[in-house]
């Protein structure tokens, strides 16, 4: 009682209604806030995944361009003109073939001296290639490599090379070169959110080409604070100090030393707007709930006072007329009180009549007893015989009176209880197999077993076998005997199969308490629950006497 008084002190109904309104509104507000947090987290996870996928898609586009250039180099390396040393014919044929592709071919010897360059007419004096380091790296590795971006001597533009090393002389390597701005046609922000940018970064960390509102110029070093973190084949980079309210996705171009990166702002406007709406709406909800609760409390308080006045007058012995209020239930109470006051008056009249009859009947019984004892006294030949005769007569009288009193117990058949509760799930009725000999349940058993059965069926429709068309449920009951328990036992079995894989809940909720603890306590039996992978198994074992109506 002290604990109840602590949580429910004496207070007006208005105070309790206002507290109830706040208690209802605040959890709803907190739950919506939790949902918003979850939504924000899901949106951010989705954005990260899409950002990484966009960077990967861009890397595949650049990879196809580099692979096409590598294929072109392999074809040119095996051309007859180059094999025969006819560089003039090779120059003419190559320049004609690549004229519309913004690609240019260089042939260099081992020192890097250009033997031809399709940017210039054949025979024009040429210098060494501007990127000797990229040539040496390709010659050393023996495979096709893409260079870092650099300023070309012939074009004066930012360019990059794809180099094919050869073992022959005098052409030790073939190089395809392209202006970075021409590669930029493949790097686009189309399909990205507004404000996002994309770039291709070479091995040294310089931008080869970029697009978007924050795109740096070719040859510009990419942010050195970010590059060391881009160590995986692909992923997402976040750092509020470096990229405040921004996200960066990257992907390594397979087989090459370049990376693709995309970055841009994380859309926060809609979430912030939703949060503002939630806060304002939550405060308004609480205020409206408090005002509504106060208005209802005022009306109920007036109604209660009117009914209390009726009850007071009724207690004084008056017949009272019902008061008219705006609460239907209160009107029913007022009518009931009015009827009760009239019934009370009639009952008092009847009581006076009954008391009069009781006195009359008591006199008759005493008269009868006196007459009976006088007759017995005349016939008895001893005190013992008299006492025995009186006791026998009085006992017979008592038995006659007891025969006028009887009690009737109601009950419902078990099969009917099962059918009634399963009628709530008509779509799953054909999936349930029911077996067992029918009998009549006690009133308490009807309620308790029905509660457990309804909970099992509800859980199955939501999560178990009845949630899918191919699922099946078997519900049966049968008599069992145990050596250490001579009383008759009943065993109820609910077995599911064919449904989704079952996972044991991490925490005990309301449903588990009903089908386990409540069922076991109500029938003074035992409950076994097995969260099998193929389906839930529930077994209740209890004494038959606790369920069956005698």
Automatic annotation (TrEMBL):
Catalysis performed (reactions): ATP + protein L-histidine = ADP + protein N-phospho-L-histidine
Domain of life: Bacteria
EC number of this enzyme: 2.7.13.3
Bilayer-crossing regions: 16-39, 277-297
InterPro entries assigned: HATPase_C_sf (IPR036890), Sig_transdc_His_kinase_HWE (IPR011102)
GO molecular function: ATP binding; protein histidine kinase activity
A Pfam family matched in the record: HWE_HK
UniProt keyword annotations, A-Z: ATP-binding, Kinase, Membrane, Nucleotide-binding, Phosphoprotein, Transferase, Transmembrane, Transmembrane helix
SMART domains: HWE_HK (SM00911)
Residue ranges of every copy of the Signal transduction histidine kinase HWE region domain listed in the record: 357-438
Main enzyme class: transferase
Protein name, per record: histidine kinase
Organism: Rhizobium sophoriradicis
Lineage of the organism: Bacteria, Pseudomonadati, Pseudomonadota, Alphaproteobacteria, Hyphomicrobiales
